Amino acid sequence: MIIYFLTPGDDCVEIIGGQNVRPHSKPYMASIQIYRRHVCGGVLIKPGWVLTAAHCNLGFKHQNIVVVLGTDSLRRDEDKSAQRLAVKQKIPHLRFDSKTFENDIMLLQLQSEAKLNKFVKVLPLPKYDCDVEEGTICTVVGWGRTKVNIKRLSDNLKEVNVTIINRTKCNSQMYYNNTPAITTNMLCAGDKNGGRDSCQGDSGGPLICENELQGIVSFGKQCGLPDKPGIYTRITEYIQWIQGIIA
């Protein structure tokens, strides 16, 4: 079964096999909330813009969405460091396909710009449009529960290292078998032994490779399986689309 990595109802799941981030070491990380419930992650790429996944567009009006910045803890989002910002508009990619997962990317324009400080910073877009090489070790960041079979949502932001897998292998019969096809608009990353992965609740969060934003958490089959790595929207394929909106 293909699953999106968002948090419907109480089925919130987090970075599998991860550990707590160093306090405030991910100042670009955003929690996208509806009625104070975390539904997706996101990345602050400009003071007034957050990048996330298109499948996080759950049908709610933008007026119901709040972006929380400046905190590692979902329970302490009223800390002095936290900023709660209303959303002016949401802009999912017009060609997002919920069956093939193509173009799983969305921008949120904030009602007012975030105040940048040591707790809130932007993560720039990649400078070059190169693909991420097979074997590159990347980091996924997200919130949620610590194990698949535990329903309680974790309080803390977590991270885990995953390795880029080439698309040919990812599309092979042992992996996704082209159902759906992992295209050049996507990145495939996981762990050969399993147990390290993004999962439900991490949708829209960043995949960081060599200190650059390279992916957005998109989808997978279950979580943490060695032959079903996580799939990420490849940011470098959408630089022109992003810049055409936020410039």
Automatic annotation (TrEMBL):
The GO terms describing molecular function are: serine-type endopeptidase activity
Q: Name one Pfam family in it.
A: Trypsin
Query: Keyword Translocase, does the record have it?
Result: no
UniProt record, GO biological process: proteolysis
Belongs to which family? Belongs to the peptidase S1 family.
Q: Does the keyword Nucleus apply?
A: no
Name of the protein in its database record: Peptidase S1 domain-containing protein
The record's section on SUPFAM superfamilies has:
Trypsin-like serine proteases (SSF50494)
What's a single GO CC term here?
Answer: extracellular space
Keywords assigned by UniProt, alphabetized: Disulfide bond, Hydrolase, Protease, Serine protease
Every copy of the Peptidase S1 domain together lies at 15-247
